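Problem statement: downstream parser choked on a complex file, so we are re-checking the raw output for the magnesium ion run. The parser issue turned out to be on our end (a line-ending mismatch), but while we're here, posting the original submission so the record is complete.
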Amino acid sequence: MNDFHLLHTEALSRFYPGVRALDAVDFDLTAGEVHVLFGENGAGKSTLISLLAGANTPSAGQIHVRGVPMHFANVHDARREGISAVFQEFSLIPTLSVAQNLCLGEEPLHHGMLDKAVLLDRAQRSLDELGFDVDASALVATLSRAQQQMVEIAKGLRGQVSVLILDEPTASLTERETTNLFALIARLKSQGVGIVYISHRMQEINQIADRVTVLRDGKKVCTVNAADTTHDQLISLMSGRTIEKIYPHIASHPGELVLEMQQVSTQSGVQGASIAVRRGEVVGLAGLVGCGKSELLRAAYGLEAVSSGKVLFKGLNHSRASPAQSLKAGFFYLPPDRKSEGLVLGFSSASNITLPALSGPLRGLGGWLRKKDARGMAEKAGDQVELSSRNLGKTVGLLSGGNQQKALFAKGLTRDMDLYVFDEPTVGVDVGTRTALYEVIKQLCEGGAAVVLISSDLPEVLHLAHRAYVMCRGEVTGELQGPEITESGLLNLFFGAKESQI
Ligand SMILES: Nc1ncnc2c1ncn2[C@@H]1O[C@H](COP(=O)(O)OP(=O)(O)OP(=O)(O)O)[C@@H](O)[C@H]1O
Ligand SMILES: [Mg+2]
């Protein structure tokens, strides 16, 4: 077919027992373009790129690189052709440093010994060039998810790359890192690199896409020029429905204080932070990656130790509570990393969803487990987050990224809580589901619960929070209320407290 295509596929397919994950898809990529893959959770986007990058083998169909038919047995075969992918699931080795991960297999030697200085220097330079604020000597295990994402991207760009594939690279990045990434993408485009880009964020698609291919249920719906297509058109192509409004109006009736944190510090860098959360309000918590917004609430929940200061939950001292005690007391925390903390990957979705209920509503008289109720409970919670019932019985680790996120969210819905802390709740979920999750947050808040929304997604905080705190370098740099919560209002505080407020 076309020689000018960097790559193209013919009827490319991947089947699993009972699932046509990718069904006869024709796709092509030209040099210097950003080609976005768009579709609902489970539509087949990650499957398509795993085949292009050699991480998975097709059940049928053909991949061509520069017009030549190719069979990739593994990612190294694809890398040899200049195809490099940054997957949704990370590949870094947590026990090694960033520098060691970046130079894996290409370690600089000096008299036959590892030259640590050169290793560190080379890695740090590659990160700096990309504008990523990551210390190359740090152990990967100590990095936040966003920082790991940046290292993954740096790793993807090692060597000669003619096709770069990015699967939701900005899912856990804030504006600043995203801007750096987009500048990098523009540079690569001008060098003739073709980019396959997966995202659920409409704003990004607007900013960088040249063409968009829409997938639904494993099949290609169409490929369109981004410039000729509106958001609404894309959404209806993706889901077959129109979405009137992504963000609901949430009524605010602030009631009694549920959580008070006074001058809290932690080992992980929170420094004397104070916040208060009441029933009947959504409190946003924003700030750059690494500012401590996640750590602060993790300390409240008991996942990190409070080294000084005080935490009060419903008026009682909660400074030394464990996560189990928090849950029991009516405090739910949704972690940002579904893989490492949130889900038991080998269990079914239904079992994951009902886990928090095991110590509560599912215990009958005498401590017996009420198994029959569990199924109904999982179905109800699954329904609220639009997780289809056919996914309930499936092993959660085999679901698509966004469907795993739905299962994680549903875990919070099986018992009544006084406080819900959602840490990056919509990472990787499609636009339709996003509205469903926001609707759940609305119901929880209007039902009288207190809600904290920790988010790197600025529009989410802008539209949903009644009050917002911003953190920078472990400190709370400001608090905004109602109409004060604007993009510039928040961003001004991202880099420290305003002079006038001190
Ligand atoms: N190893 C596997 N075994 C069984 N089913 C799988 C496997 N990998 C993927 N699937 C299924 O294939 C379908 C497509 O999944 P895929 O991960 O490609 O979706 P996606 O479009 O990337 O979704 P998301 O936006 O949620 O990341 C899903 O139904 C998923 O459950
Ligand atoms: Mg995916």
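For whoever reads this later: The chain has three domains: 5-239, 252-330+418-428+449-502, 339-415.
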